[in-house]
Amino acid sequence: MSIPHHSGETAVGRPRDPQLDDAILRATLAVLDETGYAKLSLEEVARRAGTTRPAIYRRWPGRVPLVLAAIAVRLAVPTPPDTGCTLCDLGEGLNVFLAAYRTIRPDVLIALYADCATDPELRGRYMSTVVEPPRQAVGCTIDRAIGRGDLRADLDREMLLDMVSSLVHYRALFGRLHLTDTEAEEAIETLLRGAAVDYEALVEHSEAMELEHTAPGGSHTAHHT
User: pTM of the full predicted structure?
Assistant: First the structure.
């Protein structure tokens, strides 16, 4: 399966080779994994992809757009789960989010944001690539929870969404390590104790679904108070 292209540019002249696009993005990710963002050079990416710097520039106008396109491949967020269990859905959704983030070195996200922060266009592309997709996925889960009466209808949706999203973003940008599963679960519990109509009922529902759907020998993790 080919990697989607995210440069936002219009092709000019002869059609580009999508296989070369894929090779360049894969080479970029490989260099980021091995040496980080600061040491990434277009020469090294071109060498690994079996192409040239001009070929890269025809696709992406510089290092930052190229890295954003490569990272977008890893941060593609799937459709959020909808099991009818608010704790399960938030926990699973955040775990999918964390799994994607853990494929990117924290120092890469920090250095990349520093290069984007002072340029409004690049900052917007960073936000749309790194922040907004998982934020929208979590937002769908929160909306469903409000709709079925699990979360208070009068809560500040955007504030809660900021809190949940920032659990991952803050650690990725300012910490040495990504958020762990245990830390994420504890943080969700802390947040929902204030946002839920009846938090203990949510826990009971989650545990009931755990007993109903976990097969013998399964590894599904239950939520606990």
Answer: 0.73
